[in-house]
Each structure stands twice: as C-alpha cells, then as structure tokens.
Amino acid sequence: MQDKDTRITRMPPDQVKIGKRQREDLGDVTDLMESIQAHGQFHPIIINTQDELIAGRRRLEACLKLGILVETIRYHHLTERERKLIELEENLRRKSLNMVEE
Fold first, then answer.
1. Directed axis angle between helix 57-66 and helix 30-39, to 10°?
2. Are 37 and 65 in contact (CB under 8 A)?
3. For residue range 36-76, what is the model confidence (pLDDT) as tens digits?
4. Closest by Cα among 23, 70, 27 to 47
5. 86-91: long-range contacts, CB 8 A cutoff, minimum separation 24
6. The pLDDT of residue 2 is above 70
7. CB 36 within 8 A of CB 63
8. Taking the model in full, what pTM does it have?
9. Taking the CA of residue 44 as centre, how many other CA atoms within 13 Å lie in the half-sphere pointing to its CB?
10. Are the CB atoms for 27 and 58 separated by under 8 Å?
C-alpha cells in the first residue's frame, strides 16, 4: 500500500465521490446511525486525494443521513488494484459475533 495521511480530518459527506462499489446493498444503516449519534464515528472512512471513496460506504451513508461531517483518512498514490484491495479487505476481514458474544 502507498502512503497515507494518518491525520483524521472531517468533511461534508456529500463532497465524497462514490464510484462503482463491490457492495451494492448497504442494508439498513439505522443502527449504525444511532451508534454514531450516541458514541461518535469509531472508524474513519478511507478516501483518496480526489475525495473518492475507497472504503466505508455504510459509515458515509450514516453520516450523510445524520447531516454530520464524516471522519476521513486520505490515502495517496493508490493504484486501481490497491483501491479495490482495500475495499475488499475491509468487507472480508470482519467476523460477526456469535450468539454467546452478542
């Protein structure tokens, strides 16, 4: 991966450009909106230097619906392959809680 600006910045969510995404169905973001409203945004979205979304589409949508600034981390000099890999990694490397953990 190329270099990133590790500072978390905030920007209006409607300024983030959304291109073609691997995940089309965002599902219901109501719970995520409630969490962000109650506790803040735990994880910033990832954008590139052209303000194009790389990862964090559901968080972006929740902030857009809430009418609040979205927290971002900016990656520089990404190839198209690296952009797709970051999006895929974020979506694949999660593990849902089991029934006992919930």
1. 70
2. no
3. 999 999 999 999 999 999 999 999 999 999 999 999 999 98
4. 70
5. 86/1, 86/46, 86/54, 86/55, 87/21, 87/22, 87/54, 87/55, 88/22, 89/55, 90/46, 90/55, 90/56, 91/22, 91/23
6. no
7. yes
8. 0.82
9. 18
10. yes
